[in-house]
Amino acid sequence: MSSETAVPNFARAVPRGDDRERLVCADCGFVAYENPKIVVGAVATVERPEGLRILMCRRAIEPRRGFWTLPAGYLELGEDPASGARREAWEEARARLEIDQLLAVYAIPRISQVQLIYRARLADPAVSAGPESAEVALLAWDEIPWGEIAFPSVIWALEHWRETRHQPAFAPKGNPPGETGKM
Prior knowledge:
Layout: E1 10-13, E2 22-25, E3 31-32, E4 37-48, E5 51-59, E6 68-69, E7 72-74, H1 81-93, E8 97-108, E9 113-122, E10 133-139, H2 152-164
Parallel strand pairs: 4-9
Antiparallel strand pairs: 1-2, 2-3, 4-5, 4-7, 5-6, 5-10, 8-9
């Protein structure tokens, strides 16, 4: 056996029985499918004496560093979506969530993402910035920095949360009509 490691020999080709180009190993025929990324996150709230507050994070990383977002990120292999949303809230805001239900499913084809956003409550009102956040805040609706929101889907999720906040059950929302998440 050689001590050299074999280097995959991938090329773009249309595999037999398929209708689009894929990465195919020229040596063995293995197809390396490229599929959309799944993003999970939450609109997380907490009731305070001064009223209901929404957890927001100011991004410390690109893309859109310095802009505000909800705690969200990529789902990990072997992880269920609700657990992923709880993990992301912990990583970005040191927040512990109680997931209520799926709020929305957004399709962002231009960046090959599907976003699963939950409605949640903070299990503990103590939050602090994690390594991917420059700061976190618990904001009233009228305190949200709308001109500094990182991504269109954050606005959609906040609006869908507001629309459903008093509903005990509802069908998950989707992209607003005509919206594809373009910046």
